[in-house]
Each structure stands twice: as C-alpha cells, then as structure tokens.
Write a structure and sequence with these properties.
single chain; 7 helices; elongated; mainly alpha; Four Helix Bundle (Hemerythrin (Met), subunit A)
Length: 183
C-alpha cells in the first residue's frame, strides 16, 4: 500500500538523518567530519524525496483534501512544507560547499534541517497518513496508484538500480571509514 511505502521511506530518511547527526557531532567535538559522507547523503536528499517521495505524498494529500478537508487543514500546506524542506536543503548544500561559512553556521543549518525533517515526518505520520487512511475510499487509492509511477526508494530498495545501490554502499562505507579513523 502507498502509505506503508511512504512510511518506510520515512524510516529510511531517518537513517540518513542519523548519519548526518553523527557527522555533526564529530564536528561539534572539534574534529573534521567526513564531508564525503555528508555530500553523499545530501545528494540523496536532492534527488529521491524531491523527485519521487514528495510528489506521491502530494497526490495522496490532494485526495485527502477532497474527502476530508478538515483533516487536510490540520495537516496544513503540505506542498509549502516540502518547498521549505527543499529550501533548507539548499542552505545545507551551500554551507557544506562553502566550509568557510564557519563551524557554528554549518552546525545551525544542518541541525535545523535535521530537526525540521524529523518534525515534518512526525506530522505526516501522526496527522496526514492516518487521515488519508480514514477518509479516502478504495476508488481513491486506485486512482492514486494509477497516477503514480511508484518507484521504490533506490537507496534502501533491494531492487535498486546499480547506481543507487552503489551510492547506498558508498555512503555506508564512507561512514564506517570515518568512524574507524576517528577511533
């Protein structure tokens, strides 16, 4: 089911946020984080959520607005939330690419991205997905399914394309190498 897949993608995103958070902690302790790991995670966020995950949520949300406007109103402006997430990601990219921005600015920007992504996921899991499951009818889910291409999350899918499979392996390898070097 679509909501189950979107929820699993949220769990996958949380794994990447935890990696970013670990790298930020390294930075907080005065050590140099592994910017290859950070950049690989950012590359994922630049592609998958924006191109695949959020558009699928937007289609479900449009149906929810039709079936249960009050529940949709409680969720708020989901498209704007996604847009704000993309804007925060651009700030992260800018901060990482220009390390000259300094330690405190980078820390603040990355932490803001992590916290806002977690809040956004929590809101969708708590309000949006349950409201959609309650309000939408079987024909709505059929229409949603036919409107979506339904690609699996390439970074966490067993059936991932080789490129994304290699990216996932590289991110995990880089994180392990960075951890080993720090200890």
């Amino acid at each position: 089911m679509i909501i189950e897949r979107l929820s699993q993608e949220h769990r996958n995103i949380e794994k990447l946020l935890a990696i970013l958070e670990r790298e930020l902690e390294v930075f907080n302790h005065g050590d140099r984080p592994d910017f290859k790991v950070i950049r690989a995670v950012i590359s994922y966020f630049e592609l998958y959520p924006e191109v695949y995950h959020h558009p699928q949520e937007d289609v479900v949300f449009a149906k929810l607005r039709t079936r249960d406007p009050a529940a949709a109103a409680k969720v708020g402006d989901l498209a704007r939330e996604h847009q704000r997430g993309a804007e925060r990601l651009r700030r992260v990219v800018h901060a990482v690419d220009s390390v000259l921005a300094g330690r405190e600015i980078l820390q603040t920007i990355v932490r803001d991205f992590i916290e806002c992504e977690r809040y956004h996921i929590m809101m969708e899991d708590r309000d949006f997905f349950p409201a959609a499951l309650k309000a939408l009818e079987p024909q709505d889910w059929t229409e949603i399914a036919s409107a979506l291409t339904n690609p699996e999350d390439p970074l966490f899918s067993e059936a991932a394309e080789e490129t994304f499979d290699a990216l996932r392996a590289r991110i995990l390898q880089l994180e392990q190498e960075a951890e080993a070097e720090r200890h």
